[in-house]
Amino acid sequence: MRYLTLIALSLASLSALAAPEQFKSVAELMDSYQDFKDYKDYPAFKVLSEEPLHIQVSPAVLEKSSVEQIKVDIQKASVYAVYRSLYQTPATSIKVTIIPLSMNLDTHEMKYLDSGRIDFTATKKQAVSLVKKYGNITNEEDVITASGDWAPKFQNCCYLESGKPGVAVFSKELINHK
User: Fold this and answer.
1) How far apart are CA 40 and CA 30, in angstroms?
2) 98: closest CA among 83, 113, 108, 86?
3) Dihedral-angle region of residue 97 (phi above 0 means left; psi in -120 to 50 means alpha; beta otherwise)
4) What is the CB neighbour count within 10 angstroms for residue 95?
5) I need a surface site. Which of 52, 63, 88, 162 has the fewest CB within 10 A?
6) What secondary structure, in 3-state letters, does the chain show?
7) ω before 52 within 30° of 0 (cis)?
8) Sign of the C-alpha dihedral, residues 62, 67, 69, 72?
9) At residue 3, does pLDDT exceed 70?
10) Which of 38, 77, 79, 34 is nearest to 173 (CA)?
11) How many CB atoms lie within 10 A of CB 26?
């Protein structure tokens, strides 16, 4: 009996080590990863409201990017914002506003592209349901590894353009999920 208890405790400690790093807030999370860096007068990440949680992320796009490339950047930002926030903070629900940030490399001018703006809300329950549906993913470490990277199973189904179903299909359902 004692042997079974030791095995159970060992497995529990191993699973705790495999879980993604947890942060007290989305602001702390985003500050740690630095994937949405602020530019002089153009924040790429903002907490618009703590309660209820509402954030804005602005993926950087080149001014000459195609509409299709901007769309992919928006799709990836939507997945990033929801899954990092809901899997690595205590948040159970989040409202996300995505506004691409256009950058002109020649003039260094920047502007928000309001035409690409999307707003949506997601819950942890919805996020878990979607990864289960599309990737047969039931464990947190199959979404985000302990080192903070997207797990291969999640990346291949839900974050890559070439994945199955791919970021376009996955993000559309994430954004429109009711």
Assistant:
1) 17
2) 113
3) beta
4) 16
5) 162
6) CHHHHHHHHHHHHHHHHHCCCCCCCHHHHHHHHCCCCCECCECCEEEEECCCCEEEECCEEECCCCHHHHHHHHHHHHHHHHHHHHHHCCCCEEEEEECCEEECCCCCCEEECHHHCEEEEEEHHHHHHHHHHHHCCCCHHHCECCCCCECHHHHHHHHCCCCCCCHHHHHHHHHHCC
7) yes
8) positive
9) no
10) 79
11) 24
The sign one gets for the Cα dihedral 146, 120, 129, 153 is negative
| Count of other CB atoms within 10 angstroms of residue 49 | 10
Residue appearing with tokens 């985000």:
144
**Chain center to CA of 43:** 17
pLDDT tens digits along 34-88: 888 887 788 999 999 999 999 999 999 999 999 999 999 999 999 999 999 999 9
**Biggest alpha carbon distance in the chain?**
71
The reported pLDDT for the residue numbered 19 is 83
